[in-house]
Structure formats: C-alpha cells, structure tokens
Amino acid sequence: MESFLTNDSGLPPFILTGFTGFEDSQQWIFLLFGALYSVSIVGNCLILFIVKEEESLHQPMYYFLAVLSVNDLGVSLSTLPTVMATFCFHAREIAFEACMAQMFFIHFFSWTESGILLAMSFDRYVAICNPLRYSTILTDARVAQMNLAVVLRSFFMVFPLPFLLKRLPFCRANVLSHAYCLHPDLIHLPCGDSTPNSIYGLCIVISAFGLDSALILLSYVLILRSVLAIASREERLKTLNTCVSHICAVLIFYVPMVGVSMAHRFGKNSLPHLNTVMSVIYLFVPPMLNPVIYSIKTKEILLGTQ
C-alpha cells in the first residue's frame, strides 16, 4: 500500500480525507465500506456466474446485465485501494499519477454505466414496442457492437481529463474532499486557470449524461404509449413489470449523480459533509443495489440463485 501511495514523479501528492469530525468512528466507517464492497463484489460476481451458466439467460437483456455487473465491479475496485488505505491503514497521501489514474477509471466506469443503461432501455423498447423483430434487431453481434460503442465513447470522453489537469500548476495544499479522486474535486485545487477543464467537464456531462437520460426518458414515453394501447389491464401490468428493474437501476444511478453535481456546485460551503455523503451514495449504492434489484425482480435470476 505504501508503494502505491509513494510519489516518485516530482509532482505534488494529494491528501485524501475521510469523514472529518468522525475520526473516533473511523473503524465503524471502515466496516461500513467493507460491507458495501462485499455486497457489491459478491452480488455482481453472482450475477455474472448465473448469466454464464444458465443457457436460458443467453439473450440480449441479460448480456447487457452482465456488462452492467462487470462495470459495477470496475466502479467498486477503482475506489477500493484508497478507501481501504484511508480508513484501515490511515495512509492519506496519494501520488499525483496514481490520483489521475484513479480519477480516469472512476469517471470512465461512470460514463460507461450511463451508456449501458441507455442500451438496456433500447432493449426494453424493442422488446415491448416491436417484439416480432426483437431477435432480428438485437442479434448477438449487434449487442456486442453496442457495448463496444459505449466503452469507446466513455474512453475518448474521459481520456483528456488527466492531461488537462496535468498542465496546471498545483502550488498549495492539495487536500481532497474524499478518500478517492474525482474530477469536480480536483479542478478546484490548481493555482492556474482551470476554466477550460470546467468547460470540458460540463460539455461531456451534458453530451453523455444529459443525452443518455433524455433518450432513456424518450424510450419510456414510447414504451408507455405502446403499453397503454394494450386492452387488458393485467397484460399492461405484466409488460410494465419487465421494466421495473431497469427503471430502478436508472433512478439509483442518475438521482445520486445529479445530487453530486449539485452538491459540488452549490452545497460546498453550506453543508460540510454534503459532498462526501452524496459521493458515497453515487459511487457505492448503485453497484451494491443493482444485483439485488435484478435478483429480486427477475424470476430467471432468482431461480438461478436457489
């Protein structure tokens, strides 16, 4: 752990923080994070195992779910080293390059999750609004192409962020607000003009999260219109029930994400712990709850766990 946090690049290190004011309760916070990581890692690995082993799950909806689980594992593992170092070993210094790498992976997996949720909404749209062509539209090759496009989009969006930060001078105490590195936190630290960083960050947030959420909303408007055309009330409820897991996954991802964005921009001085709490919810809750939600609401996965 010490070698991971050692700074050999000559660039200024960053100081990670836990929950300031709760130093006497760090061991309980460590246990909380340990429980969150355990549920997330075990739950998502279980989803991947069931999807792989159950031949009945070898279809587009569950392929997307498997990719979502891989991404959620990435989110958890990208924060785990520094969170454990901060709360377990009290090692709060992280090298500049290590911080940039962690920031890259955290935001890469966040943008990838948004794209996967959009792809899953398209899957639900085709399954409900055009069921007769479902197997011809969402072939295995097309599902793979969609997932690859999501990953490449996220990579090219996030790739410039470390380089934009590296060009700026850091000349004061580089104390972070969290036990991990986030771009909205880092852009407040340089002595130089970070306006280009802020503008670029805002542009990719709007072009990714904004566009994805709008398209997800549009897909559900079309789904709802199609469902309302079904005569039987029972059939309408049965059809809508196939979307419940995805709707929950969308809400537990986008609501905390909006909360983090608002907290960084408007709540930084009003509530000292608001940023920390919202970031914890944003990064730890979706990877933990996604496998739970899909296991409870999806009969095939629930049977696979028994």
TrEMBL record:
GO biological process, one term: cellular response to lipid
InterPro entries referenced in this protein's UniProt entry, alphabetically: GPCR_Rhodpsn, GPCR_Rhodpsn_7TM, Olfact_rcpt, OR51/52/56-like
Ranges that cross the membrane: 28-51, 63-84, 104-122, 143-165, 199-223, 244-264, 276-296
GO cellular component: plasma membrane
A Pfam short name: 7tm_4
Keyword Signal: no
Homology family: Belongs to the G-protein coupled receptor 1 family.
Name used for this protein in its record: Olfactory receptor
Gene that this polypeptide is encoded by: LOC100022580
